[in-house]
Design goal:
It is a single chain. The protein is α/β, with parallel strands linked by helices and 348 residues long. 26% of the residues lie in helices and 30% in strands. Strand 10 and strand 11 form a beta hairpin. Helix 1 packs across helix 6 and helix 3 runs antiparallel to helix 4.
Amino acid sequence: MEKKKAVVALSGGVDSSVTAKILQQKGYEVIGLTGKMVNTLAADAICKNAAEVAAKLGIKHYILDVCDRFQECVIDYFEESYKCGKTPNPCIVCNQFIKWGKLFDYAIDELGADVFATGHYADIRLVDGVYKLYPAKDEHKDQLYFLYRLGQKELSKTSFPLYEYEKSQVKQMAYDFDLPPKSSKESQDICFIQKPVTTKKYLIDKFGEKQGDFIELSTGKKLGTHTGHYQYTIGQRKGIGIAAPYPLYVINIDADKNIVYLGKKEDDFRSRLVIEDLNFSYPIEDKSFDAMVKIRYNMPAQKAKITIVDDKAEIEFYEPVNSITPGQAGVIYDINDGHLIGGGVNIF
């Protein structure tokens, strides 16, 4: 029988390299596909590292230039979000438009892949004819939050071989298989901003310094000045630089007036938000239901009432949550077994 073909999104890192090796051991014809996102030396290094992995595994390797699409869908979105006083989530839009956009389409349509595989930590299951995403075994690496924009088309052709492993096991496998990236560090959160450049410095270089006011939310009193609202995010405490008798947090941002509103920790809690630009992993019938919700990746999911109205969803938490941040994702999980239902973009 002809081998099934698996195209692996190969970044040259540990996770994608081990993914390729696992699929190779399972009898797939494995092909490596690397997206070149930006025209930088760091991006060239990623392509080179991926090529070394492919050579070690003895598989074909392709590099797909997606720089223009990445600039339009990820970098421009990232910059415009901060400019508008929002906090973006570039990994989510990269997954939608680049990994399961350009790369997925190329893998299926041009390379004839039966499956498109990545090193994400998530579990795809076929339940009563519907593909659903469940948490991975390693709860510390679970990545459902970043995958809420994937639908049935993508899930039906996607494989996540690492779902059943702990990260420590994957690292050990890289050593056991003697894969090139076996001792490499974790990749950075924002791939197009390379150390020592920080997000703050990147944004200052982009927008310049623009003096604005820090205003106390409860009194309207001016507490000091800053050099650009885009350097701050809701819930931020460090780096404000204002002396006060109590810890100050960023509570709100007025981008038009370049004002950053500060307050106490209790000012940062809310019970309600609305998400827009909805996407569901599979068709849902109920317009009102209880679920678990995350409003950022690194938080425990909280119980909430979901009410879908037109193209938005109203979320009412049973207990107030802190730092509801415009531009971040509000992601909805099944209250019983934790599988991913869908999500949208946070707005107040």
